[in-house]
Amino acid sequence: MSEPTIEHTVLENTGRAPLSTDELAAVIGHDIPPGSYVNLGIGQPTKIADYLPTDDSGNQTVILHTENGMLGMGPTATGDDIDPDLTNAGKVPVTELPGAAYFHHADSFAMMRGGHLDVCVLGAYQVAANGDLANWHTGRPEDIPAVGGAMDLAIGAKDVYVMMTLFTKKGEPKLVQACTYPLTGVACVSRVYTDYGTFDIQPDGVHVLATYGITLADLRDRVQVKLLG
Amino acid sequence: MSRAQVLQTADEAVAGIEDGSTVLVGGFGLAGMPFDLIDALIRQGAKDLTIVSNNAGNGDVGLAALLKAGQVRKVLCSFPRQVDSWVFDGLYREGKIELEVVPQGNLAERMRAAGAGIGAFFCPTAVGTPLAEGKETRDIDGRTYVLEYPIKGDYAFIAAHQADTLGNLVYRKTARNFGPVMATAARTTIAQVSEVVPVGSLDPEAVVTPSIFVDRIVKVEARHYTVQGAR
Q1: The whole model's pTM is what?
Q2: DSSP string covering B2-59, please?
Q3: What is the ipTM of this complex?
Q4: Are B124 and A155 in contact (CB < 8 Å)?
């Protein structure tokens, strides 16, 4: 665990817009430790695959895990490389990199629960100040619940990063004191990466690492959670 | 019956499946979906089925077609709702099908437990969430776990790449997914394969599902479908 940061170390990136989705993916990619085993879930976090750490020769040093049974997943497949038997967790056709390995579902989820996976990045409806995650179900009776591997990843990966917009379309913050949506996992999130700021969840509270297109003071006004420096 | 039967048609492979059976159906989306066995089950007509599978059908083929045929009473799965799950969505909203949502890893491990003779197991997934409500919990070494029970099948439908005539199976890429686990967890495991090869042709070091778990084998023609449609 890192030393608690102090107020003036928050990097305030004002005079610019909040991060675009691709910029956010690049920020997260930059923070993923070289050499780690990483799961990028489905949807937006899969963009991070374009921004993973590389070695001096430009080779990707991170090994990607996909829950449907593969380590060493490569980029999205196109044209003749599309193989119906080779997809990612989002059912998008992908490719394999040298050193790839295939395995069945029980082994794939043993990699999560067993603490073998270093980082996963998930989307979220809400994250609470204590690291509770809500990302699988709106709770509305008309919506069909679907959890997939979200709960297994949330409690399994050593570090759970969330990639999301900080506010809903109505402007309500998604970083909250307590989740109102049904939980995916309890106290499981360690980092929250958003368009307006990045946050580290520590036992003493939520630390702001950086802001984008907003001052720390304005961020504190718009988010009801106590934000530490 | 101990030795696998190599059958000529998918219809023979699904013969005798009773109404009310629990059928474990392999596949993740369309990858590894045992299409020919499912189509044969539609022709065979068994009703009131419980289906255990990762998804609840994509498009109008495979599991979706079985649902559409009105043969399924209940689905246990991790991820029913998808952009192309319109068959399931319609039945669910009309109250014509039951749904039990199970975290994906629990689905796999509960079948693994069934196949391995485990009575139940404590699992950390879903602690503190609605999917653990009403379930027994225990604190072990400072962490809370939920008691999960095995999921057994009467039948398992799986799609593999090659079988030898004893029933040893190898798979292809991510189409492996639930196949090896489901093969262990059912009373009768039925595998459709792209190729049946003589005994001795498969590298024993590379066999993924040993023959002891396989009861019926049928060779099917490769099926081409639009992968993009599986999104």
Answers
A1: 0.95
A2: -SPEEESSHHHHTTTPPTT-EEEE--BTTBT--HHHHHHHHHHT--SEEEE-SSS-BT
A3: 0.95
A4: yes
